Amino acid sequence: MSILAWTYLIVGLSFALYIGIAIWSRAGSTKEFYVAGGGVSPLANGMATAADWMSAASFISMAGLISFMGYDGSVYLMGWTGGYVLLALLLAPYLRKFGKFTVPDFVGERYYSRTARLVAVICAIFISFTYVAGQMRGVGIVFSRFLEVQIETGVIIGMIIVLFYAVLGGMKGITYTQVAQYCVLIFAYMVPAIFISILLTGNPIPQIGFGSELKEGGYLLDKLDGMLGELGFAAYTDGTKSTIDVFFITAALMVGTAGLPHVIVRFFTVPRVKDARISAGYALIFIAILYTTAPAVGAFGMYNMLNTTSNREIASLPQWVANWQKTKLIGYDDKNGDGRIQYVKDPAVNELTIDKDIMVLANPEIAQLPNWVIALVAAGGLAAALSTAAGLLLVISTSISHDLLKMSFMPDISEKQELIAARIAAAAAVVVAGYFGINPPGFVAEVVAFAFGLAAASFFPVIIMGIFSKSMNKQGAIWGMIVGLVFTIAYISYFKFINPEANKPENWLFGISPEGIGTLGMVLNFIVSFVISRMTPPPPVHIQDLIEDIRIPRGAGEAAVHH
């Protein structure tokens, strides 16, 4: 069977499964729509959280970044994994005990202010749209290659599918769909990685194959260093980023993860606080399977890509290049007319252009794996993008229907009207997300990195100080969020959209790139909120008692009395 036939079969079966689950578990109440009725088991929630969290950036883009950036790509690995640990230990159990559906709900209640809630809603919507644009772009890339349509058409197909099960099933439908999507995406990621590891090194475990000797002799990483050095690139195992920038990007990704509204809401879907901790542990194991494999996938992809394209005669280029040329994500221009393709660092001489986002998807084709494996990767990429897109759309619709309408402007609406508003908001959000998917502000992982920076600069300080500081008041929270968000947006916008020519290390503030500036935004947020809360009246007594209650585990008070 051809790649196209296999793709229709495997993607079609996986979509039938997702839609079947959405219909079976469709939401009948706002509680089911927002938090799946609060009755999901920790194991299922761990899988759903892993699928929700491992987006198109993790599946499609991260190993592609590592392929081209080498050592520098490790910031994404460290930041996203470390951030998940931070979220599981520092935030999730406390927010679960607080018992609110959304981050704006927590901010509104904790800071006893409608203004604070509105600022948090704006932050949540802004972050979610930035993030979901990357997912829709990922969907478009997968469809454009494997269904042989335009990227724009691919994005529209993805919009229709996400709309169907996010709007129908709400959180209940999304949770059980995400369990299935996790199984699809992890199988799709590991099968080609194991295949390629055996082909190159004879070792079936990619994590070990990554540091092993190749069958043809020499270690994989040594070979890559040598090959890239000859082409004028930095060695694969050397970093080009400054230490301060690596630190700031890693920190922005870490605290950004901990402030992501669509991941936090997952911890409200389990019955008890204890279950929130357990499901966080399960999710970490499920996430680690993919994350420890990504460096190997990136290195295998780069090695095979260089071997099959660099300095090859155009007439003898492999079939995968022609297949991907149709998507316009790879192209060549024989500048010197010698009939060969030169892939070198110098842009004046380089004749091959490759979009970083295709590496994971093209990897099985480059390694000449069976057609069913190629189609399986397509299904996995779609599962990763769609699961996260659905979670984000739910955050947007919940922020609008619950936090804006029900809690702020229309407190008298019925539960049925609130559910209708949530569905309309989700539909509108899909359309906006689709537009950004067709006209993206960067490649997938870059767009997602900005979302993390914005989450770091706005939400993280407010949530942390809301849980651990009794003196943190509404004035401090509101001004902290505004200053952090405005500074971060302004910095990113200047270097990415207003004056992209200036986006060089020598022009950056303290040598910090736009991807890492969210950390500085977070520090400003902490400083502003701390100073202003010291200059203004302390929170009411009932709020201080509430914070005390969140922090102390149930039963701790009684135990102290007996002693």
What does this structure look like?
There is one protein chain. It is built from 23 helices and two strands. A two-stranded antiparallel sheet has the order 1-2. The radius of gyration is 24 Å and the shape is globular. The longest helix has 51 residues, at 151-201. With 563 residues, the chain is mostly helical. It has a domain at 3-302 and 367-457: Sodium/glucose cotransporter (Up-down Bundle). This is Sodium:solute symporter family protein. It is a multi-pass membrane protein. Pfam families: SSF.
Short description:
The chain is mainly alpha-helical and 563 residues long.
Topology:
Layout: H1 3-24, H2 30-35, H3 42-53, H4 56-69, H5 74-98, H6 103-110, H7 114-146, H8 151-201, H9 206-209, H10 220-230, H11 243-258, H12 261-264, H13 273-291, H14 294-309, H15 319-325, E1 330-332, E2 352-354, H16 359-366, H17 371-409, H18 415-438, H19 444-468, H20 474-498, H21 517-535, H22 541-551, H23 556-562
Antiparallel strand pairs: 1-2
